[in-house]
Fold this sequence. Notes:
single chain; 68% helix
Amino acid sequence: MGNCCDTLCNSISRGKNTNVRVSLPAVCFVWQIAMIILFGVFIRYDEESDAHWAEHKKSHNITSDIENDFYFRYPSFQDVHVMIFVGFGFLMTFLKRYSFGGVGFNFLIASFGLQWALLMQGWFHTLDHTTGKIYIGVESLINADFCCAGSLIAYGALLGKVSPVQLLVVTLFGVTLFAVEEFIILSLLHCRDAGGSMVIHAFGGYYGLAISWVLYRPNLNQSKRLNGSVYHSDVFAMIGTLFLWMFWPSFNSAITDHGDGQHRAAINTYLALASSVLTTVAISSMSQKGGKLDMVHIQNATLAGGVAMGTAAEFMITPYGSLIVGFLSGIISTFGYLFVTPFLEKYLKLQDTCGVHNLHALPGMLGGFTGAIVAAAASESVYSKEGLINTFDFEGKFANRSPGTQGGFQAAGTCVAIAFGLVGGAIVGLILRIPIWGDPADDNCFDDEVYWEVPEDEEIIPPVLEYNNHMIHKHQDISESNFSVEQS
């Protein structure tokens, strides 16, 4: 009986139709038209991007355009935007035959996600109940990119195993869940999470892992020949790593308060990232008999310091505290790639293509609880009374909250993010199991040819002949040039 079931499952798997000529254009057109309609109904420029800015300046005694929030936030927005489209995109090009899918589908889902995020976050955070409109400015764009990051992280766990239509569904629900959990954590629980250790990384990591667990492929080993890298694909992925590593201080400080908070967040992240590189290299070398380094560790675990520093970035964690966070996160992330990922796949049937558990989920959880400890330890002697109020926003109905209580809420916020990721991911995974999405069969994963027109590989010419041919063409060009001159 068991053999009959296996045979039936295999035949269904082999019979999967990956033709998305109707479904992908239909989803793209319908959803983009829906965005146009919803934007027309709800979205408007805020007071700093509207043409009435001149009147606003006069009424608020603003003397210069330089006080417009655009000039404070746009440099950070540029950095975050590059991280979303270039950093995340190229980081996913490590597979030998899935570079188009890595960077191309990243482009697709981020472009859709940022539009949906402006609406979802607007409805939860900035909706003007008097006019029924959402007013957006440059900070809205940064938050929308943050919202997309959760779905891009989830994509890392699913890389090479799902169709572009499924990815759009993942993004639709991912952005929706993100907006809800962000509202609960930041508004209701009043947590601080400037760099998104909780709301972005812990949520996005466990969201993707839960989906991957529900979509478990028992015969994925049939595609194992493509589930790996080659020399040039690892180099391209390292480009993504370097973009992310360089711009992560901007990511963690982009939406913090102007002044000391933003300055401190950049410094803390800068130090944590540097520290995580050294511990990653150390553990990677120790894990190999010959002391050689594994490029997977260098591409990913070196970024764990930025992830883990997200929540506490604007806190007074001290420079050496930032180094400690980076030190620990590099070790934990590298050990995750060495031991946790194989364990999860073998015993929990969880196939994590990019290892998002080790780069995002685990360091995100570490960052959330680190933020809780640092918040609980805050005092007026370290922050000053005014500094404590500004850093933790102890105003209004939260004016009487103590640092210890804030620490407890920070820990609760981390748990909320994980719960939303796991439960939401499991539900979305069940939706994606419906056989209508055009996903590839188990023996057809990690291959660009399923969804992309892939050019044929160029003929490999031996280096000497290539040099000779180049020189022949060069001499021909010179001769033709001389001939044309003589003719003239």
